[in-house]
Amino acid sequence: MSRIALLGDWPYEWLIGWRYTRAGRGGGSSGAPAGGFLSFISAVSVIGIALGVAALIIVLSVMNGFQKEVRDRMLSVVAHVELHAPAGEALPDWRATAAAAARHPRAGPLVRGSAPFVAAQALLGRGEALRGAQVRGIDPAEEAKVTPLAERERALFATLQPGAWQIILGSELARAIGARVGDKVTVMAPSGQVTPAGVLPRMRQFTVAGTFHAGHHDYDASFALVHIDDATRLFRTGGVSAVQLRLADAQQARRVAEELQATLGPSVQVRDWTRSNRHWFDAVQVEKRLMFIILALIVAVAAFNLVSTLVMTVTDKRADIAILRTLGASPRSIMGIFVVQGAAAGIIGTLAGLTLGLLVAFNIDTLVPAIEHALGVAFLPSSVYLISRMPSQPLATDIVPVIAIALVLAFAATLYPSWRASRTDPAEALRHE
User: Fold this and answer.
1) Do 121 and 244 lie in a common domain?
2) Which strand (E) or helix (H) includes residue 78?
3) Residues 67, 227 contacting (CB under 8 angstroms)
4) Which of 64, 94, 306, 428 could disulfide-link to 240, CB 3.0 to 4.6 Å?
5) pTM over 0.85
C-alpha cells in the first residue's frame, strides 16, 4: 500500500508519536530497561521545561509587582502630567490652561482633575542641620483632586493656610533635620535679595504642621509642602508657575503629554511622570529584560534536552521505523512521528509550567509568609525595605512571549532527531534485528 490509512479520526503519525511519548514501561524494541530509561529522560525534559516556564512567569510577575508598588507610591505624591510655564515666568491664568487641556479632543476625556502648584529648590535648616529639598506650594483644596496623598491626608493638608507660614515635611526629611510638629524650620530660597551690602539669601521661618509618609524614599526625603500663596511670596514667582493633571489611566500619560504639547505650543512645557522618573524606569526595564534572557536560557536548556531524548528514541525504534517504511510510510511521515513526540513533550511541559507559575504568582502573598514562618526568616524585613511583602502582578504581555518561546524551542529541538529518523534505511535497520 502507498500510505497507511487513518486510525480513527487522527493521522497515524499523531497516534504513533503520542504512543512513543507515553511509552516506557517495556515499550522499547530493545527491551524494558531501555524503554524505562527513555521514559525517565523524557520525563526529566518535560519537568525541566515546566520548571523553566514557571520560574520565568513567577520572576516576571514579582518584578511587575514591585514596579507597580513603587509606581503607585510615586503617583501618590506627584500628578500624571504637569504643565509648566517657561522658566522664571508664571501662567497668566492656570484655570484657562487646565480648561484648554480638558477640552482637547483626544487627551481631554482622560483628564479627571487639575490643581495649581509652585515648585522650587531650597535649603531647609534647623539648628546646625541643613538639607536641600524641593519646596512645593499647593492649594490644599485643589490638591486632593490630583494626588492620592492629599486626598488621604485632607485634615493635615487643611492646616496649610495662606499667610500662616506652615510647612509639611516628608518623614525622612523631618528626621534628617530633627524637626517635629510645632518646630520652626528656616527655608532659604535659591535666588538672593540685592542690598547695599551685597546679595543676601531670602529666608523665612516656617512652623512644621506635620509630616507625610508616601512610602517612596526619594519623596519622603526631599519634599516639603507649603501653601501656594506663601510659596509665591517667598520665591517671587509672580503667580502660579505650573498646573498638575490627573488622568483616568496613568499609562496614557506619555501619549496625553505629547498631544497636549502639540496643542498648547511652546508657551507651555508639558511633562509626564514617566519622563520625570525616566532613569528609574529605564533601569527597571533593562533589569527585567536581562532577567528574561537569563531565565529563558533555562527553558532553552530544558527544551534541548529533548534532542538527546529523541535521538535515543530513534535509535531504540529503528526496527519500528523500518517496519513502517516497508508498509509504505514516507520519510516525511516518519519525521512527523518524532516531531509529534517532541512537540507533545514540549506542550505538556509548557502547560504544566504555565499552571504552576500562575498558581504561585497569584498566591505568592500567601506562600511567602508561610515559607517565612516555616523557616523563621524574613525575606523583606520592614526595617530595611520599604516594601515588606512580596508583590506579584502576572501580565499577559509577559506570559504570552514565555509560552511562545518555550513552544518554539521545543519544536526546534525535534527537527534534527526527526530528520535523522526519516533517513533510516529499512534494510540496514532490519539486518541487525
Assistant:
1) yes
2) none
3) no
4) 94
5) no
